[in-house]
């Protein structure tokens, strides 16, 4: 989940960070042998892996479900179903499928690898570490697994040193006593964001949101964010504090941005295009969107929202800044036209698995194509 700076200084990192290792694993997973006795199940299994490799997680989930009906004791099929669920961010389903795969075949290391990612994403760091400790004894050549385990060990060691400030809606963890005053200021900024953003959208998170304040080095190490990132959200709001120490406005802005991501995740764990997620988080930062207007005006060509559906991680700093600016203006327009609660209803539909076009038409009372055309025309007229 990312943010860009108003003066050309990118702020937050694009989303999907916890998914990256999973996707790498899927490449490995895809190269498996197919040893089914039943040709129909074997065909389905192959089709399922091909769908996963092509990023069609929903098709893959359906295909593996059908395959399991024909061969309900096949651990590889549950591995495939778990991988599909993981990509669709149905983490509970992923966990059940992967645990069952391991019940059927306790030596299925690829299921253990994915299950570790599911546990990590759900905040169970000790559980994830335990699985990966077993994993690296099973596949000692897997350098990526070893590197992941090292990083998790460092995070766990740091967590042991962290102190906490607990508010009504957030728990803020920080390392040294010298950070305690900063943690109090962060908590105040988060509470302001809670009421302001929650009020605009007409919804508030149910559970306290965990927040960790890091040194810059710890932040880069644990989140593997690009150097321009000023925060990250992956179930926990993670913020490097050095830059924010001397800049209360920046602290407000970054924490409001990350808080909005936390709220979006609670409303819709999946199915949200990046422009909508980042646009909402950026539009609801404290401060105006004049920088975004300027940035979009400077661009040689308009940016179609269609091109901003997946992670911004692939963009250069300048491209990413334009992507954040266009996304923020588009979502700002949606909030102006339809209201925050309507945007929340759109998110809820997406999280429930309703297709984007249908959900958009229903909740925004116009087609997405119509909105995009009007948005582009509106920008030209400025
Ligand atoms: Zn973001």
Structure description:
- By secondary structure, the chain is mostly helical.
- Helix content is 63%, strand content 5%.
- It has 17 helices and five strands.
- It has helices at residues 19-30, 39-53, 57-70, 75-87, 91-104, 109-121, 125-138, 143-161, 180-201, 216-223, 248-267, 274-283, 290-298, 317-338, 340-351, 356-364, 368-380, and strands at 163-166, 170-174, 209-214, 232-233, 237-240.
- It has a five-stranded mixed sheet with strand order 1-2-3-5-4.
- Helix 9 links the parallel strand 2 (170-174) and strand 3.
- Helix 5 runs antiparallel to helix 6.
- The two termini are 29 Å apart.
- Residues 4-36 have low confidence and may be disordered.
- It binds zinc ion.
- Zinc ion is lined by residues 1-3, 12, 257, 261, 278, 281.
- The site of zinc ion (ZN) has 8 residues, from helix 11 and helix 12.
Summarize this structure as a short list of keywords or feature phrases.
about 65% helix, single chain, mainly alpha, binds zinc ion, about 5% strand, about 375 residues, five-stranded mixed β-sheet
In terms of DSSP E residues, the strand content is 5-15%
Largest sheet: 5 strands, mixed
Which overall shape is indicated by the principal axes computed on the Cα atoms? globular
Number of helices: 17
Distance from N terminus to C terminus (CA atoms, Å) equals 29 Å
What ranges have pLDDT less than 50 throughout 5 or more consecutive residues?
4-36
Strand order of the largest sheet: 1-2-3-5-4
**Helix and strand pattern:** HHHHHHHHEEHEHEEHHHHHHH
Q: Taking all residues together, what is the mean pLDDT?
A: 85
Number of strands: 5
Structural class: mainly alpha
Helical proportion? 55-70%
Bound molecules: zinc ion
**Computed CA radius of gyration, to the nearest angstrom:** 22 Å
């Amino acid at each position: 989940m990312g943010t860009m700076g108003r003066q050309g200084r990118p702020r937050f990192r694009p989303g999907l960070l916890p998914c990256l290792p999973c996707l790498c694993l899927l490449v490995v997973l895809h190269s498996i042998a197919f040893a089914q006795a039943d040709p129909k199940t074997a065909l389905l299994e192959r089709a399922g892996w091909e769908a996963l490799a092509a990023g069609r997680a929903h098709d893959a989930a359906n295909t593996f479900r059908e395959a399991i009906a024909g061969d309900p004791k096949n651990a590889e099929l549950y591995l495939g179903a778990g991988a599909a669920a993981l990509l669709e961010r149905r983490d509970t389903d992923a966990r059940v499928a992967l645990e069952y795969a391991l019940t059927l075949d306790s030596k299925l290391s690829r299921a253990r690898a994915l299950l570790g990612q599911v546990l990590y994403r759900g905040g169970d760091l000790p559980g994830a570490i335990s699985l990966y400790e077993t994993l690296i004894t099973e596949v000692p050549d897997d350098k990526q697994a070893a590197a992941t385990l090292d990083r998790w060990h460092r995070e766990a060691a740091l967590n042991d040193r962290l102190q906490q400030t607990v508010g009504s809606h957030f728990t803020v963890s920080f390392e040294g006593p010298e950070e305690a005053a900063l943690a109090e200021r962060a908590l105040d900024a988060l509470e302001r964001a809670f009421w302001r953003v929650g009020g605009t959208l007409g919804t508030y998170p149910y559970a306290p949101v965990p927040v960790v304040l890091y040194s810059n080095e710890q932040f880069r190490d644990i989140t593997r964010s690009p150097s321009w990132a000023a925060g990250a959200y992956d179930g926990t709001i993670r913020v490097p504090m050095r830059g924010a120490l001397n800049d209360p406005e920046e602290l407000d802005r970054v924490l409001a941005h990350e808080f909005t991501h936390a709220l979006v995740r609670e409303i819709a764990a999946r199915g949200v295009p990046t422009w909508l997620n980042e646009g909402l988080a950026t539009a609801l930062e404290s401060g105006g969107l004049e920088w975004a207007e300027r940035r979009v005006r400077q661009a040689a060509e308009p940016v179609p929202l269609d091109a901003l559906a997946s992670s911004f991680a692939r963009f250069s700093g300048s491209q990413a800044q334009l992507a954040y600016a266009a996304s923020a203006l588009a979502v700002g327009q949606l909030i102006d036209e339809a209201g925050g609660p309507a945007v929340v209803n759109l998110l809820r539909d997406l999280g429930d698995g309703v297709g984007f076009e249908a959900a958009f038409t229903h909740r925004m009372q116009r087609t997405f194509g119509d909105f995009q055309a009007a948005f582009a025309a509106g920008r030209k007229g400025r």
